[in-house]
Amino acid sequence: MSRKPRPLFLERRSYRRRRLSDAARILPLLGFVLFLVPILWLPAETPAPDTGRGGVYVFAVWFLLIIATFGLSRVLSDDEDAKRPDGDD
Amino acid sequence: MVPFNILVAVCLFYVLVLFVVAWAAERRAERGRAHWLRSPTIYTLSLSIYCTAWTFYGAVGYAARSGLEFVTIYLGPSLIMVGWWWFLRKLVRIGRSQRVTSIADLISSRYGKSNLLGVIVTLIAVVAATPYIALQLQSVTLSFGVFASGTPEGWGLPDQGATALWVAGGLAIFTILFGTRNLDANERHHGVVTAIALEAVVKLVALLAVGIFVVWGVAGSWAEVFARIDASPIADWELKPARWIGLTMVSAAAVLTLPRMFQVMVVENSDERHLETASWAFPLYLLLMSLFVVPIAVVGLSVLPPGSNPDLFVLTLPLAFDQGKLAMLAFLGGFSSATSMVIVAAIALATMVSNHIVVPLWLAFREGGARAPGDVRGIVLTSRRVSIAGILALGYIYYRLSGGSAALAAIGLIAFVGVAQILPAMMGAIFWRGATGRGAALGLVTGFLVWLYTLYLPSFGEEGLLSHAVLAEGPWGISWLRPQALFGSEALDPLLHAVFWSLALNTLAFIAGSLLSFPTPLERLQGLAFVNVFDHAPGQGGWSRGGAEAEDLLAMSQGILGAEEAQEFFRAEAAAQGRAGFLPDTTPEFIERLERRLAGSVGSATAHAMIAQFAVGAAVSAQDLMAVASEAQQIMEYSAQLEAKSEELARTARQLRDANDKLTELSVQKDAFLSQISHELRTPMTSIRAFSEILMDEDLPADMRKKYACIIQDEAIRLTGLLNDLLDLSVLENRKVQLNVRVANLHDLIDRALQSAGSTRPERSFLIHRDIASEHMPVFTDTDRLVQVFINLISNARKYCDAERPELTIKVRRRSSRIEIDFIDNGAGIPKKSQTLIFEKFARLTDTSRAGGAGLGLAICREIMVNLGGSVAYLPGQGGAAFRVTLPVRKGAEKAA
Asked: Which 8-state DSSP code applies to residue B806?
């Protein structure tokens, strides 16, 4: 059998899946940038105590990242499961 | 207060539980019921060895000193896990497909199975891990000390060294028991992993319990905790951007390159899909571990007397509030953190040491190399056991030398930066096909040396390995070589300084070395298999057929895999090749699979070296590759030829089939023809016989006799005519007819034909329309035959024209080199469906025998005309039956024209 040429346009489902895996790749970058935001506040130079506030921010971002990863991993793994039967044959 | 003896008893009981759990898990795995053991939960929990005693005790101390900065150590790994799709997924896939046994094996395997690289990575890992193990021993010893001193403030146990020794010894025994039971493929240790998962739960529960106690038991509520944070010495967040970014990145690098993390994340991974769960569950674990760190730190700072060691707040806070059981739980949590890290680190390091240092040395110094029979397996296991003991001994010695003085966090970070030196080579291994072994070696050595010089050696303090003078003024007074201010970079703090210079020079050397050197073919193959691991199954094709004898290979494999397993592997391979017995053909595929199997036990470099001793001269060279390439080219050409040939065959077969069909059809026609002829001949014969019998009757009157004789004669004439026709047809059809070509006037020929045909049904009078003038033209042909055709056509008209007043029109026309003669009557004509039939033999439209012919007339006409180079055709739409005779002016002239 000759190899099929790569289709120009993907079926809607595969397209969605590709974009989700793009999102999974971008997520750590987004997280990194969000964790860098406190630097812009210059907490060391402001007179007000910021440890409490900063802590809440860091943990909130952290938690949201976990939720997003959870969602993405579920969707990506569902797709993989759905693909598996014909993938194996 | 918990008495010290009870503490020791609880500790021993806990270790016993771990033993039982590990033992039970091994048993289950052996019986093949390891399903539950291979769940994503266990996998995620086993990753928690990232959180060592450094986390458990040290994070609080870190927070008490530097506020929120401690969190960077957990943000880095969280980001790596969140980005699992991008990096970890590929790493785990490579680890599984190449049967990688350690991080040193990964690097060595990728860069051409070079053992040198394996040795370098092993050395870095051992040097970096030693202080880390010492740190664990120190923390356990310190926590024992808290209980032994009887007061929360003190941690001075009279015989600290003895405690550390006991702990190190116990851990060595546990690790040797469960870590070196087998040289299993892919180095999975179910017992150890399960025990670690249990420890992960214990330490999480312990830390959460202390945190909950501190927040709701001591402070009262979160609001109160926030109030205390604002009132504490760490209220103002002294965020240093460089450290914040740098530490996050270093910890992210470390989670990938720490040998123990690699062990649990890649080597012990039994299913890639476990990563999906770990991707969010492990960051969640880290978040929970660090959630109460700041509250514990600030409450500890405010409640405990000044001067208390903040590294022990997790223990001393519950003790200060007389919560013995909670303190005990916290102690077990810390104990778990320390032991699990030490166990896995020792296994990972021992695997690396034995695979990359001991076994290659043993092979090199042994007479006869791997060819000599011997128990390699025993050697490997022994070397691992010795390595485990040796690594723990190193840790212990470091602990005794350093005197347990440095803060926990500092030691941890030094180790992190050390192993992070592997990162550039690792990234190159996975994402850059152009990365070469020389580049990797250059980068690793550069990074390692810079790290040693700028961070590791200064960490021993000013009285340590580097003198005060060197630290302050640089070696030999060269100020720009000062260990903590290379090239005059004094602005950075020592840690970041080391991170920056070691990683920068490391990466630079790695990239430059890769760009300038040329990889070996094996490196390029491995690079392809690593970088494109998702695109195709790796085909190394590293071995060509030769040298290796299956029997020798079996003998060697038995020494490594164990007799039973090796025999089973060889038998399965032989069966797959369709052979009975234990000795498969030593095909390149088989040798490659064997190598990978062996790599699962002794590492890829060693396995490659061992196989290489058998397959003498069979290792891939560039020439071999070229040969393989041209061979492939030849095969492709050959297959193209085959394809062309098979197409030709198919075409011939199709032609044969067509010919066969035609023959079959002809045979059917022939049968039909024969039966027709028989029928036509029998009819006159029957009447001749009948009348001749009557004639034999002597009483027959004379007139009757004469009449019957006439009938017999008529029938005989008809029979003769039929036979003549048949002969004629046969001659004509075979194109063997002798043509008597003459010149004649067409008008004369038509006259002759009309005269002759007049005898047919002479009772009918026909009106003949002719255009005499047009008929006068010369024809150059066999005139007799042509007249025969005309006669036939005119007779047919006379016979079959059913008009009341029959008329016949004869038209002659000349068309360039052809002459057309039309014979048109005014009868009913021939029905359309029959028009194609009339020229066939024995075709008669009506069943009447009035024509007296056998139905061969038109068939003969057609054959004559074909022989004369012309044709005869039915001309529809002329108001009656119409036939057009076409003939060339001169036979053969048409072709010339």
From this structure: -
From the list B330, B302, B116, the residue with the least C-alpha distance to B224 is B302
- Report the residue from B80, B237, B280 with minimal CB separation from A43: B237
3-state helix, strand, coil in chain A (%, to 5): 75, 0, 25
Q: Are residues B746 and B652 in the same domain?
A: no
Confidence at residue B597, expressed as pLDDT on a 0 to 100 scale: 78
Identify the CA nearest to B454 among candidates B425, B489, B422.
B489
Chain B neighbors of A41, CB-CB under 8 A: 239
pLDDT at B577: 77
Q: Residue B462: which pLDDT band, with cuts at 50, 70 and 90?
A: low
Query: Which structure tokens are listed for B142?
Result: 């310190």
Question: Residue ranges per domain, chain A?
Answer: 16-82
Is there a contact between A69 and B82 if contact means CB atoms under 8 Å apart?
A: yes
| Closest residue by Cα to residue B815 from B761, B870, B861, B854 | B870
> Which chain B residues touch A50 with a CB distance below 8 Å?
236-237
Do B82 and A52 count as a contact with CB atoms less than 8 A apart?
A: no
Residues B269 and B325 reside in one and the same domain: yes
Domain count, chain B: 5
Of B163-177, B727-741, B842-856, the one with minimum mean pLDDT is B842-856
Domain-embedded: residue B733: no
Which residues of A fall within a CB distance of 8 Å from B236? Answer: 43-44, 49-51
Compute φ and ψ for B102, nearest 5 degrees.
-170, 175
The domain in which residue B96 lies consists of 4-421
B256 shares its domain with B284: yes
Q: Which two tokens stand for residue B503?
A: 């990683």
Judged by a CB distance cut-off of 8 A, whether residue A3 touches chain B is no
Q: How confident is the model at residue B152 (pLDDT cuts 50, 70, 90)?
A: very low
Please give the helix or strand (H or E) that residue B741 lies within, else none.
Answer: strand B741-745
Residues B749-768: pLDDT tens digits? 888 888 888 777 777 788 88
Residues B807-844 have pLDDT tens digits of 888 988 888 788 889 898 888 888 777 776 777 776 66
B443: in domain: yes
- Which of A51, A73, A77 is nearest residue B67 as measured by Cβ atoms? A51
> What would the pLDDT profile of A18-58 be if each residue is shown by its tens digit?
888 888 889 999 999 999 888 887 776 777 777 788 888 99
Same domain, B412 and B436: no
pLDDT-above-70 percentage for chain B: 85
> Alpha-carbon distance B314 to B298, whole Å?
12
Residue numbers in B near A58 (CB within 8 A):
68, 71, 75
| Coil, strand or helix at B886 | strand
Nearest one of B182, B129, B178 to B15, comparing CA atoms: B178
CA distances from B101 to B107, B147, B186, B447, B557 (A): 11, 40, 6, 24, 17
Report how far residue B459's alpha carbon sits from residue B494's, in angstroms, rounded to the nearest whole number: 10
CATH number at B645 reads 1.10.287.130
